[in-house]
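Input/output pair, single chain:
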Amino acid sequence: MLDFAIFWEWLSFAARWLHVITGIAWIGSSFYFVALDLGLRQRPGLPAGAHGEEWQVHGGGFYHIQKYLVAPAEMPEHLTWFKWESYATWMSGFAMLAIVYYAGADLFLIDRNVLDVSAPVAILISLVSIIAGWIVYDQLCRLFYGKSDTILMLLLYCILVFLSWGLTHLFTGRAAFLHLGAITATIMSCNVFMVIIPNQKIVVADLIAGRKPDAKYGKIAKTRSLHNNYLTLPVLFLMLSNHYPLAFATQFNWIIASLVFIIGVLIRHYFNTVHARKGNPHWTWLAATILFVIIIWLSTVPKVLTGEEKVAAGTETLIASTHFSAVRDTVMGRCAMCHAAEPSYEGIYHAPKDVVLETDDTIAEHAREIYLQAGRSHAMPPGNVTQITPEERALLVAWYEEARK
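Output:
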């Protein structure tokens, strides 16, 4: 009989793999069509209603593409819709959220030092935040339709910054980043499901009925598509951030998340400008690099902004360190219930990533991971379920840093 833990692990892997595959398909088609749209050229003699055209070469052949800004004069016999990539990406992503974060709420979703709630309440907060994110975004877009796009984008960014801060006060840092990505991804998918595709269907229905389609539906769809284009890179970072505790589990994680959105927009602005043949704004890469350096600093800077003193360094080697006895006690008391040959923590059946911390040698061998995951960041223990204290984290930092001097 198949062990339930093994089945659940493979179910998680299947959902993750499907999410990656469908995400690649969605992002690929999105990036392609935005680049195509920006690269269109107008010339005399285009068919009536055609906005522009482009010639492309790929796979040993040439492609001649024309775009109709509103609609062609007649409904074409064959029409390809690009929508299932978006839907499948969102559904597989939500499945991952349920499998990993809802089923494992005590480890991955809830940090009782941040907000002490039960698993059902935490899951409800999660669902409400995702739904509310779409509603607020959609209403603002409708309110600002035909008005200042710049003001709209600044307002939306301010809301994203607020979300970055707010989510870190509701969930673990890992879950906060994931939810910020999930809210943004939901906005992107709902743009497709509730705006872009319905607007295109209205245009198609008008063509079939012999009516002249209203140009506003295409303009609205194009605006939402452009929003999706600029949001893609931040979402990718947020979805991968659970592998990088220095991003999600440090003091200024919400500022890091906010800066990531700017970096993503800068990079997309570069490519969009190049695709539109409007120059090469190399300054965007310099600006993105500067922001990334700031992120690195924010992830490791001593907590001088809150008055916490920098941890002092000590002696020379890891095991011979004067701190090691206390470090060993901390690791055995806070980490070894999971990181053991036979884990004792309920629901953990084997040591995560096969990291076993039961002897002096294995603790020293994994000193760097301990330093990053439980010292410099708060990634471990997940949700701080073993109640490791700030003093114990400071001890792990001092132990590792003194050995490097």
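The mean pLDDT is 86. The chain has two domains: 4-37+82-300, 324-403.
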